[in-house]
Amino acid sequence: MLKNLALLCCTAVLSACGASSLVVSGDYPTPNVGQIPLTLGVYYDEELRNFTYVEYSETGKEEYQIASGQTHIELFDTVLPAMFERVVVLNDLNAATAARVDAVFAPSIEEFQLALPQKTRLDSYEVWVKYNMRLLGPRGDYIADWVMTSYGKTPLATLRSTDAGINDATVGALRDLGSSFALSFGSVPEVREWLAAQQ
Amino acid sequence: MNYADAAMKGAKRNALQVGLLVLVAVVLAACTTTTVDEFRQGETGIESHESVVILGRRQGSSYETREEFVDCVGDKVARGARGIRVIPEKEFIDSMFPWFEPRTAPLRTSDLQTLMEEQLVADKIAEYGIRYIIWLDGQTETTNRAGSISCAVGPGGGGCFGFGSWEDDSNFDARVWDVSSFSNVGTISTDATGQSYVPAVVVPIPLIARVEANACNSLASQLQQFVNGD
């Protein structure tokens, strides 16, 4: 009994010193956009699947570990089927030809920034993400490569925990990505040319 | 005088003291001034099968209109004998995704006209029967914080002593867009200010001015009349 209590105390003390872990979760609506009559392969690499951002304190200690890879995949899995007639998730880029896709979309996160109210002295949690979007042919040949940024913020509120603030700001940034991706996809010059060539 | 009379007198005195305290609290807490301005630019009116949607502006970098305030105005506009059917903000924004997000929402009525050329958008708006889109823009700011309260706890008990006060200022604009004519038919502005106090003699007594709640009530009542064309 005493041993268990001591162990519990040690765990509590140690966990208070460690970084706080957060797995971002959110719901994303299906976009109301015209569907492109093509089959798109989508490839989520390991880096995206396991993407975790680490926020450090001013003394250099790990403060927050924010895992947002899975929620990014949920976002793309919601947005892409609304944009394309058929979407095939590929586990390997080499499987694209066999899957008879017209192109392969491979998103990646280049940068993730978090602004916490306790550091910025502002009244909101803010998240800014920079992405690299790649569109490849079924054989891996280049079609388009472009950069997108997204931004989300959520106000500081009484009774809202820091974890909830970070989660909501990240989900806001992902909604921003989903909306601008769905609306601007056909406007990327190389993508526009490729779409015109498919008709 | 018997024991029952003395107890009755004591109870009456206590009730009087409590009543006086409540009265003072109500008077002090009600120190809120609200001003509502209406600027009408077109005729309004709504049929029973039509609805409105009330949306918060969230494009500004320094502030964003709080969801809670938008919900409060929506609830009040929908109430009463002249209540209007209000589509909840979250439901509308989700079902219109990606067209009413902070970065993509129409800022002018001309943008709305362009947006309605998208068949999917026009169909959704028609499905909801939306006649007016009402944009709420504003915030509540707290200023003039003064005073301090100290609290202490000892073996014999604890208590607080001091006095704190602050001023809240709510400023909100409601722009009413007529979806049938793609025009701004009017703007209603509300400005509510109030001073809150927290005197503390052993126990802190918060006397809070309900500034944002008053701004919500005034704005909602004026909006209801405006949309109904009263």
What are its keywords?
heterodimer, A: 199 residues, alpha/beta, Rossmann fold, five-stranded mixed β-sheet, three-stranded mixed β-sheet, elongated, B: 230 residues, six-stranded mixed β-sheet, 6 helices, 37% strand
The overall average pLDDT of chain B, rounded, is: 90
Overall strand count of chain A: 8
Give the termini separation of chain A: 74 Å
Q: In terms of per-residue confidence, which ranges of chain B show pLDDT below 50 for 5 or more consecutive residues?
A: none
Mean pLDDT score of chain A, rounded? 91
Helix content of chain B: 25-40%
Largest sheet of chain A: 5 strands, mixed
Q: Going across the biggest sheet of chain A, name each strand in turn.
A: 5-2-6-7-8
Biggest interface reads: A-B, 16 and 16 residues
**Which structural class is indicated by helix and strand composition of chain A?**
alpha/beta
Radius of gyration over C-alpha positions of chain A, nearest whole angstrom: 20 Å
Largest sheet of chain B: 6 strands, mixed
Describe the structure.
The complex is a heterodimer of chains A (199) and B (230). Chain A is an alpha/beta fold. Chain A has a single domain (37-198), classed as Rossmann fold. Chain A has helices at 2-17, 46-49, 69-83, 117-120, 162-184, 189-198; strands spanning 20-23, 36-43, 52-56, 62-67, 84-90, 103-115, 124-136, 142-155. Chain A has a 5-stranded mixed beta sheet with strand order 5-2-6-7-8. The N and C termini of chain A lie far apart (74 Å). With 230 residues, chain B is of the alpha/beta class. In chain B, 35% of the residues lie in helices and 37% in strands. Classes of the chains: A alpha/beta (199), B alpha/beta (230). At the A-B interface, strand 8 and helix 5 of A face helix 5 of B.
